[in-house]
Amino acid sequence: MTRKPALASLICLLLPALSHAESTTTASAVTTSTASSRVDFSITVPAVLFLRIGTGSGVGAANNTTVDGLTFTVPATNIGDGTVVAGSAASGDLTNGAVTVRVFSNVGSNVTLNSSVTGQLKTTAGDTINWSQIGVTAAALTTGTAGYTNGAITHPAFSATTGAGTATTLTAASKLVRQEGRWTFTYLNANTVPAGTYGSTAANNGRVTYTATQL
To answer: Which of 5, 105, 111, 170 minimizes the number of CB atoms within 10 Å of its CB?
Structure first.
């Protein structure tokens, strides 16, 4: 029984040493003697899929709830004559119907980009304009972002009626997708249609939803 306190005291003396980081001692050290100690580092990087169409953050993954509006006004003397109509000055974050496109993924695989519509652009009276009348030109941004491939990203063609369009695939390089560019939208004005405002609201099928999908 008298040995138990001695054993407990010995354990208490050892515990502080067991809790220390690794260390070594070189006894009787002389010139060129060495002692070493090691530390393990761990870095956790989250898997991120980021899509920006129009107004949004720069290169980060911050959310932005702004939905850009694209407005096209046909001149009275050019209704349905095929004269392409550019977006208004305030249309899109790059103005005149142009928007920024940026996709980032570090998941390691390719990403598809697609568009989806809820129906043909219509007025409150029920008159319609087919999505085939919306032209899109893909190009590089005037000023690119460091680390991103800045170029013409193929626009995923709109469905002529409703639902998803034709997806564009963005290929991962070194397990990363970092691509950006610009889309400039126009109204092709190829058909003579009744007067009215087509689209503009979700109820009138004026909203396009873009979706990036990790493969």
So the answer is: 5
